[in-house]
C-alpha cells in the first residue's frame, strides 16, 4: 500500500531577500514568497492530489506556505501538525546578521565552512548533522508511519530540515547533500515502497534557481 510524501520548502522570506542568516528567527514571506507558495500549490492541485494530513514547523514562513498549498488543493481546513523538529537549522550567533557582515567579522573561509560543512556548527548553532538529528527521529516516529499506511502527507518546512530528509530519502552521501540546494515553493513528490525506500520521485517545478 504505497503512500505519498510531498516536501515543499517555504517561499522567499523577508530575510532571504535581505541576505540575512535566518535560522529560528521568524520573518514572514515576501510578496514573491507568497507567489512561490501559491505556484507550488497550484502545481500540486493540477495533479489532483488530496492530502490526509500536513506537517510544518513552528515558524511563520513555513506555516503560511503550508496554508497556501492547502488552499490551492482545496483543503484549507486540513489537520496540520506544527513541530519545531521541522524548524530551519539554527544559525546561532549568525542569526540576524547580513551574510557579508558575517564574512567581514569571521572571514569568508570560516563562514563558508559553517554554511557548507556537514558537521561543523556556527557558534551557538547547529550543523546540518545536528539538524538531521532532530528531523530524522521525528520523521521516523510521526511522518513515515502515516505514509507507509497509505496516507498522502504534506511537509512544508525549510531548506536545511528538508535537505536532511532528502538525504535519507535519496540516499545521498555527506558530500552529495552539501551540493544539494532546494528551490523555494517547488514541491517534491515521493511515493514510498513498503520498506520505506523511494519508489518514485517527481519534482513539480524548476530547481535551477535553488539557493
UniProtKB/TrEMBL annotation:
It comes from Xaviernesmea rhizosphaerae. NCBIfam families: pgm_1, PRK01295.1. Catalyzes the interconversion of 2-phosphoglycerate and 3-phosphoglycerate. Pathway: Carbohydrate degradation; glycolysis; pyruvate from D-glyceraldehyde 3-phosphate: step 3/5. Gene3D superfamilies: Phosphoglycerate mutase-like. Its EC number is 5.4.2.11. SUPFAM superfamilies: Phosphoglycerate mutase-like. This is 2,3-bisphosphoglycerate-dependent phosphoglycerate mutase. Homodimer. GO terms for molecular function: phosphoglycerate mutase activity. Substrate binds at residues 9-16, 22-23, 61, 88-91, 99, 115-116, 159-160. InterPro entries: His_Pase_superF_clade-1, His_PPase_superfam, PG/BPGM_mutase_AS, Phosphogly_mut1. The record marks 158 as: Transition state stabilizer. Keywords: Gluconeogenesis, Glycolysis, Isomerase. GO terms for biological process: gluconeogenesis; glycolytic process. Belongs to the phosphoglycerate mutase family. BPG-dependent PGAM subfamily. PROSITE patterns: PG_MUTASE. It catalyses: (2R)-2-phosphoglycerate = (2R)-3-phosphoglycerate. The active site is at 10 (tele-phosphohistidine intermediate), 88 (proton donor/acceptor).
